[in-house]
């Protein structure tokens, strides 16, 4: 690239980055802080527009106030950028901002050969914080060139805690002591479940931005990146998933329904959507890798607001959206999530592992008020607890609180809002 153009770009980008509002503080900032003393490259990975650039600004303010270099690779003026241009970029950054040991690279997956440059500079003593919106590209390139030299922090749209922080609501134990406080928390949770946590639509109170974001992920991050000609089939598949969050999916049935030709195509398209952080698939809990891979998977959206905005479900399935909220919170808390099927065929929504140990079994339901719903949820959970020799289970509901002992197992029934905030459990 031409030096003068590159200089113009980095000066413009730096000015824009410094003017960027720090926004709502992200919980991930604390996790980032735990990795600051390591020489490894730190990767912030997540969906388009989930707040990675804002978090990068918060990282710069918190940890690198003394100086850093910055470049954003989704700038259209960098479309012709090649691996050989990194040396020139570094020279231009030094010319403009002096020598710095910290480099912040935004949406780095758009820059060919970035991983080789990062490795070379790490070996020369530089610290990198990079962001990216494609899981496959990041993992492949980090794994091949930066083995043992990188740490990844996954970023999702706002959690319920962050949503409340964005609204200026202080959620604490005192709030739960007052009927008005509990009612306010329940009201905010109902709104959050439908609006989701993508920052920009919330900041500007513009839910229509979710539809544009959905199209950007679908066409720019999936169809264009993978050179897919059959975008109609891709769109129908994505729409099916977003309209059926929390349900088991059969690639065979989807192949026939959408005319995608083969199970391999359905599997590949699904992987592309997962890599672009639009959705996640959840396997059954099983010690056999083969059985896990062959069994039907459950699908969840990266954000309930996104699913709610584009879904074809004319009557909102609040139970499914609630389950999706819990799934995302479990991911934020670092759990390895599966669903569980008992020996008698009953289903438990979430089986959470840390390492090899099964740590927790969780059911999610709006209410246990209906006797049939109570029997279905509690009996399945109790059976799973006995099968896996786990002593305690959890049922998350809208507002109920109860402790149940059944067959020697303890089951806590707790309201979802306080659980999401880490309160009152």
Question: Could you describe the 3D structure shown?
Answer:
The chain has helices at about 5-20, 30-35, 50-65, 85-95, 115-125, 135-145, 160-165, 175, 180-195, 200-205, 210-225, 230-245, 250-260, 265-275, 290-295, 305-310, 320-330, 370-390, 415-420; strands at about 40-45, 70, 100-105, 125-130, 150-155, 250, 280, 295-300, 335-340, 345-355, 355-365, 390-395, 400-405, 410-415. The protein is an alpha/beta fold and about 425 residues long. The protein folds into 3 domains: about 5-155, P-loop containing nucleotide triphosphate hydrolases (Rossmann fold, 3-Layer(aba) Sandwich), CATH 3.40.50.300; about 160-280 and about 305-315, no CATH class; about 335-425, no CATH class. The strands form 3 sheets. Strands 9-10-11-12-14-13 form a 6-stranded mixed sheet, sandwiched between helices. Helix 1 crosses helix 4 (about 85-95) and helix 9 (about 180-195) crosses helix 16 (about 305-310). It is globular. The mean pLDDT is about 95.
């Amino acid at each position: 690239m031409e030096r003068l153009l590159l200089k113009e770009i980095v000066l413009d980008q730096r000015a824009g980055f410094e003017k960027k509002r720090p926004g709502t503080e992200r919980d991930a900032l604390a996790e980032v802080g735990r990795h600051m003393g390591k020489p490894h490259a730190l990767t912030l990975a997540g969906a388009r527009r989930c707040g990675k650039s804002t978090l990068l600004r918060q990282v710069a303010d918190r940890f690198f106030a003394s100086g850093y270099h910055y470049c954003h690779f989704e700038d259209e003026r960098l479309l012709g950028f090649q691996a050989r241009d990194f040396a020139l970029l570094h020279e231009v950054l030094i010319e403009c901002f002096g020598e710095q040991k910290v480099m912040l690279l935004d949406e780095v997956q758009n820059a060919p050969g970035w991983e080789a440059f990062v490795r070379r500079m790490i070996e020369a003593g530089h610290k990198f914080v990079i962001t990216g919106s494609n899981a496959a590209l990041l993992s492949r390139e980090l794994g091949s060139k930066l083995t043992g030299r990188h740490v990844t922090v996954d970023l999702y749209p706002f959690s319920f805690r962050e949503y409340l922080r964005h609204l200026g609501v202080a959620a604490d134990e005192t709030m739960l002591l007052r009927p008005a406080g509990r009612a306010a928390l329940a009201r905010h949770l109902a709104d959050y479940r439908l609006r989701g946590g993508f920052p920009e639509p919330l900041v500007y109170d513009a839910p229509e931005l979710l539809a544009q974001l959905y199209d950007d992920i679908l066409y720019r991050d999936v169809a264009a990146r993978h050179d897919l000609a059959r975008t109609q089939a891709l769109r129908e598949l994505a729409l099916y998933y977003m309209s059926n969050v929390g349900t088991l999916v059969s690639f065979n049935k989807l192949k026939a329904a959408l005319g995608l030709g083969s199970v391999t195509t359905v599997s590949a398209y699904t992987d592309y959507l997962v890599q672009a952080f639009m959705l996640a698939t959840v396997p059954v809990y099983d010690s056999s890798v083969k059985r896990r891979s062959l069994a039907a998977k459950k699908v969840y959206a990266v954000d309930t607001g996104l699913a709610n905005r584009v879904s074809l479900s004319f009557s909102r399935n609040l139970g499914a959206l609630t389950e999706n909220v819990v799934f995302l919170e479990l991911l934020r808390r670092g759990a390895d999530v599966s669903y569980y099927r008992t020996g008698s065929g009953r289903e438990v929504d979430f089986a959470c592992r840390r390492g090899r140990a099964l740590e927790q079994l969780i059911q999610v339901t709006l209410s246990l008020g209906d006797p049939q719903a109570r029997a279905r949820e509690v009996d399945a959970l109790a059976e799973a607890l006995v099968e896996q020799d786990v002593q305690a289970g959890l049922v998350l509901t809208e507002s109920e609180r109860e402790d149940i002992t059944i067959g020697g197992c303890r089951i806590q029934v707790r309201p979802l809002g306080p659980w999401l905030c880490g309160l009152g459990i």
